[in-house]
Structure formats: structure tokens, C-alpha cells
């Protein structure tokens, strides 16, 4: 029998307390380490066997045993013991039993401590990962206040309840600038048991953060009177939140805005001045879509294809740019919020279409017999020649897709343009910006 150094034994208990791991789990890890150390030590003495270790939970004393099976005839001396010899040690021993034979550990103390420390580090890490996973798996979607601990190239390391969490740069807002020790609000988005980096992943761009902030700021949402039906964000820039009241006497939009905008302004400040449109939800798609285009005012909403969920919205001429928004952002967020593909048209465009259909006006693009097939693409090239990446081949594909000139691109979204072969997101945005500049936006 030997005793593990008191300092080591105390450190085992201290680690268990600091890491929030049950002491028994740590002791089991140490016993496993001691068994491995014994196996290595005795194997070096040409004694092979199946070793087990036991540590006293109060004193730190440990014992090592060689496990041998009781058999009628011994074939492997290191693993078996004869029934006669076993009964000399334990009269009640029977064939098939396993005897635990104490081993001399007088020379095993330092080796055992070193091996125990190595395995202990690994076992503590595994146990801590399991504890973190168990603790945080049920907290996904929860908004927490985290402290900034340090900065890495691609992430910010935070601390939540003594556990490190990772805020990737891509999950931070564009205007986020933090100092070490600063406390910030984040939403827990995932927990990865196998991750080498901190297991807990958090975000400030996830829509769930905005939803939880509203729950915290608006009592009517917290108590269930007002319900958030959907929320979409282009984080750090703009968001739309659809709200519905279960009480006809409670205005859901007013409740979220608060007196003089106090409630929503608190959320806007937290999200670095992200613009937030609070939209009144409706079960009637046409009304919901009209509301979602706020701050633009729709004249009429016409469902064109219910199966494809396509809808046309007509607005006043001066409202067209507002309905579309910068780089198509307003109509894009409205489409995501409602789940409908929205085509925004001005009243002048619809009037022009009606006149052409009735033969009262010529179409914008003359269909002269001598016009070449390349004429529409040439029109687009001449109007938007300065756009980097727009060439004759892409202009031809745009024309074939129904975009023969700058005017035809006025109400288009980046997602629609990206369906054209050869178009990427950056080029789509450049085209949209160029069209708005072309028409004096």
C-alpha cells in the first residue's frame, strides 16, 4: 500500500470543484490512470496481467490488484490461478471466480502520480465537455449576457457562466467594437461536443436574438398577449418583425414601439442602430404583404400564382424606390417575412402596360422587323456600360431572361438576378446600384 502525494490528491478534489465535475468521475479517471501505470510498470518486470486500481476517497491511499480467474488447470499464469491456490487465499473461492490479488506498490508512487496527471487532464477535459454539452444543449436559442475575454483572428472568445463561448466574426454585427471585459448580449446557437475550439457557439446576427430582445423589452410579448409570427434580418442593417395580438384591445405594433418609441429604441441601440420595421401580421396574404412593404404604401396587391406564391404589388410612382429599398433590401426582407415572391411595380408602369395592351401606345422597345436579336442586349450595355463584369454575353442572357434594358431591372432583386447564368451576388448588387443611379436615385 502507498499514498499518493497529498498535494496531488488535494489538486484532484480542487479540479473537480473548479470544473463543476462530480468528484466521483474524477476519482474514477485517476483509478484508470493508476491501473494503466501499474500495467506499464509490472510489464517492465516481465509480469503481465489485468490490473485494477482503487483509491480511498478520504485519504488518497491507493491499491493495485492483479485480477486472475480461478480455473481447474492453469494455462496462462499471468491471468489465471488454480482452484487449489485460490482456496488457500480465499477458502470460498470457486472455479470461474475472479480474485483480486494485492500488488506491491512501494516503487509505484511517482510513476503512478505522473501517469495519473496525464490521464487526469484528458479525462477532466472529456468530462468537462460532457458537462458543457449537457448544460447548454437545452439553452440553444437563449439570450445571455457574456463577458469578452480575448480576441482571436476569426473569433471573439466570451465567457458565459464560467464557460468559454465563441462569437465568430461572421456572427457579429458590422458595427460591433468590443473591449476586453465588456459585457454583451448574444444568443446561444449551437453546442458541439467534439469541437476543438470552445464548444458553445453564439451569435449577434441570428433572428432569435432580436426575438428575445423584444420578449425582454415588451411585457405584452413576454406574457403572450402579443405574438411574434416571424422575424427576418440583414443583421446590422435592417430587420422586419411580424407581430399579432391575441387581445383585440391591444395594438401589437404600438406595444412593440412603446411610448415615444422607447421600447424599440432600446433594442435598436443594442443592435448598433439596426433599423427595425414592426409589421402587423394578417392571415390574409394580400394584407400581410402590403403591411410587410412598410414604409411603402401599396395601392393594390394581386396574387398572380398561388402555387408558386407569386404576387404583384402596385405602388405610387414616388413610392417605388421606397418599396424596393436600397439594393432591393426592403422588398427582399418583405419576401422573406411573408414567404411570397413579390414583384413591385409602379402605377405608371401598369398604366403603360394597359395602354400598350389596348393599342393606345407603343411598347418601350420597338419591334421593328429590321431590329437584330442583339438589340435588347445592346440597349442594356449602352445604359449600364460602366458596370464592371457586364459584357455582351451576360447582357444577352439577361435579355433572354426578360431584362432587356435598365428599366426592366428597376424592380428586380439580387436573388432574381442570380438565377441568370454567370451572375454572382456582387455583380447583381452592382447592377442594381447602377440602375438606381441611372434613374437618379
What is the assembly state of the chains in this entry? single chain
* CATH fourth-tier homologous superfamily of the largest domain: NusA, N-terminal domain
Number of domains: 5
Write down the Rg.
36 Å
Strands, count: 16
**Helix-strand makeup class:** alpha+beta
Q: What's the main sheet like?
A: 5 strands, mixed
Strand-residue fraction?
Answer: 15-25%
Q: Name the helicity range.
A: 25-40%
Distance between the terminal alpha carbons, to the nearest Å?
Answer: 87 Å
Tell me the overall shape. elongated
Let me know the average pLDDT. 83
Please explain how this structure is put together.
It is a single chain. By secondary structure, the protein is an alpha+beta fold. The chain has five domains: 2-134, 2-Layer Sandwich (N Utilization Substance Protein A, Chain:P, domain 4), CATH 3.30.1480.10; 138-205, Nucleic acid-binding proteins (OB fold (Dihydrolipoamide Acetyltransferase, E2P), Beta Barrel); 226-279, K homology (KH) domain (GMP Synthetase, Chain A, domain 3); 282-363, 2-Layer Sandwich (GMP Synthetase, Chain A, domain 3); 371-438, DNA polymerase, domain 1 (Orthogonal Bundle). The chain is 39% helix and 24% strand. Strands 1, 2, 3, 4 and 5 form a five-stranded mixed sheet that branches. A hairpin with a 2-residue loop joins strand 7 (155-160) and strand 8. Helix 1 packs parallel to helix 4 and helix 2 runs antiparallel to helix 4. The relative contact order is 0.06.
Amino acid at each position: 500500500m502507498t499514498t499518493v502525494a497529498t498535494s496531488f490528491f488535494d489538486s484532484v478534489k480542487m479540479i473537480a470543484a473548479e470544473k463543476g465535475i462530480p468528484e466521483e468521475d474524477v476519482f474514477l479517471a485517476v483509478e484508470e490512470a493508476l491501473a494503466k501505470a501499474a500495467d506499464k510498470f509490472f510489464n517492465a518486470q516481465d509480469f503481465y496481467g489485468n490490473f485494477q486500481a482503487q483509491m480511498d476517497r478520504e485519504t488518497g491511499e491507493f491499491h493495485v490488484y492483479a485480477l486472475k480467474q480461478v480455473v481447474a488447470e492453469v494455462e496462462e499464469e499471468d491471468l489465471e490461478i488454480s482452484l487449489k491456490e485460490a482456496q488457500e487465499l480465499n477458502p470460498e473461492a470457486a472455479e470461474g471466480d475472479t480474485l483480486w490479488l494485492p500488488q506491491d506498490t512501494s516503487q509505484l508512487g511517482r510513476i503512478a502520480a505522473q501517469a495519473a496527471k496525464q490521464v487526469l487532464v484528458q479525462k477532466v477535459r472529456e468530462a468537462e465537455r460532457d458537462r458543457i454539452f449537457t448544460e447548454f444543449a437545452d439553452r440553444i436559442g437563449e439570450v445571455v449576457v457574456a463577458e469578452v475575454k480575448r480576441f482571436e483572428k476569426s473569433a471573439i472568445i466570451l465567457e458565459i457562466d464560467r464557460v468559454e463561448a465563441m462569437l465568430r466574426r461572421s456572427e457579429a454585427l458590422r458595427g460591433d467594437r468590443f473591449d476586453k471585459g465588456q459585457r454583451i448580449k448574444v444568443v446561444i446557437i449551437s453546442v458541439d461536443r467534439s469541437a476543438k475550439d470552445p464548444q458553445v457557439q453564439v451569435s449577434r446576427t441570428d433572428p432569435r436574438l432580436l426575438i428575445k430582445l423584444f420578449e425582454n423589452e415588451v411585457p405584452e410579448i413576454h406574457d403572450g398577449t402579443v405574438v411574434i409570427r416571424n422575424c427576418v434580418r440583414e443583421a446590422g442593417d435592417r430587420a422586419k418583425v411580424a407581430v399579432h395580438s391575441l387581445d383585440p384591445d391591444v395594438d401589437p405594433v404600438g406595444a412593440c414601439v412603446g411610448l415615444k418609441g422607447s421600447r424599440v429604441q432600446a433594442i435598436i441601440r443594442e443592435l448598433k442602430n439596426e433599423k427595425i420595421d414592426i409589421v402587423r401580421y394578417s392571415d390574409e396574404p394580400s394584407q400581410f404583404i402590403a403591411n410587410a412593404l412598410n414604409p411603402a404604401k401599396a395601392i393594390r396587391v394581386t396574387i398572380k400564382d398561388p402555387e408558386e406564391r407569386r404576387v404583384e404589388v402596385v405602388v405610387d410612382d414616388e413610392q417605388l424606390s421606397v418599396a424596393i429599398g436600397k439594393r432591393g433590401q426592403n422588398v427582399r426582407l418583405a419576401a422573406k417575412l411573408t414567404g411570397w415572391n413579390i414583384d413591385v411595380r409602379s402605377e405608371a408602369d401598369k398604366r403603360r402596360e394597359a395602354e400598350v395592351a389596348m393599342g393606345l401606345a407603343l411598347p418601350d422597345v420597338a419591334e421593328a422587323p429590321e431590329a437584330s436579336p442583339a438589340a435588347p442586349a445592346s440597349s442594356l450595355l449602352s445604359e449600364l456600360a460602366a458596370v464592371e463584369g457586364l459584357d455582351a454575353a451576360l447582357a444577352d442572357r439577361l435579355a433572354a431572361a426578360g431584362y432587356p434594358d435598365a428599366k426592366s431591372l428597376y424592380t428586380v432583386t439580387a436573388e432574381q438576378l442570380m438565377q441568370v447564368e454567370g451572375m454572382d451576388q456582387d455583380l447583381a448588387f452592382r447592377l442594381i446600384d447602377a440602375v438606381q443611379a441611372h434613374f437618379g436615385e
